[in-house]
Amino acid sequence: MPDLHNNSEARESILRSIRSHLATSVPHDERETASHHVSDRTDSLGQVPAVPPGNGSLARMFKESLEAVDGHCVVVQNEAEIASELTAIISGIQQTRLRGRRIAISDVPMIERLMHLTDLEVDELTVTPNAIDLFGFDIGITTAQAAIAETGTLVLDAARERHRLISLVPPVHIAIVDAAKIYQTLGETLSVLHKSRDEVSATITFITGPSRTADIELTLAIGVHGPQELYVIINEGPALRGCV
Fold first, then answer.
1. What are the E-state strand segments in 80-134?
2. What tens digit of pLDDT does each residue of 7-39 get?
3. 207-216 b/e with 16+ CB inside 10 Å = b?
4. pTM of the full predicted structure?
5. pLDDT tens sequence across 47-66
6. Which residue ranges make up each domain of the chain?
7. Architecture of domain 57-235
8. 184 neighbors 47 (Cβ within 8 angstroms)
9. Which residues lie below 8 Å from residue 90, measured CB to CB, with a gap of 6+?
């Protein structure tokens, strides 16, 4: 016969774990509810109000949101600083078990140009390698077509850049985004994407921090279904040349 006592203890243990995790999420739920209340109010022209005073720029808000989910973010002012940050990030990765010696980049010309501005030593730099070969690369570098400040989310539109697998397969993803393409909410972001094209792309990827998953006991694991590390470089200077 089944051990009912042990089954009961296991069930109670799982329920305790769920209650504990739900309790820790309360402050985040309250913050999200408050932000929705702000977004729901419109002025006489039907426009969503600006970011409340004291919240800082959208770039800073994005940075804080991304770092809250274990992503890394730096804000720069021009292409030279982007190249410098790429050098620093990849050099650091090369000192770890993640190696950082084989790098896959998307087909946006600007990324290849920036990589040639670095003084990195790598074994391979390939533009959009095929899906099978991608599993042998250490780092994937792409741009992002938009970003959502309140959640620290990158938005990648596959119709504009071949970057979907490059952003998902290598253990490290580095993304570059213009500050002008950061919007406050998901709704605002989707609205802008829709207005900028006749129709929204059939494949849009949303990325919030490194890949993470949890089992029934809510034990978190990082990097199971995607990159273990996510780095975002935000360019606050002039729009990047050759970037979609």
1. 102-105, 124-127
2. 677 667 776 766 666 665 555 555 544 544 444
3. bbbbbbeeee
4. 0.73
5. 544 444 333 499 999 999 99
6. 1-41, 57-235
7. 3-Layer(aba) Sandwich (3.40)
8. no
9. 100, 103, 118, 120, 122, 139, 174
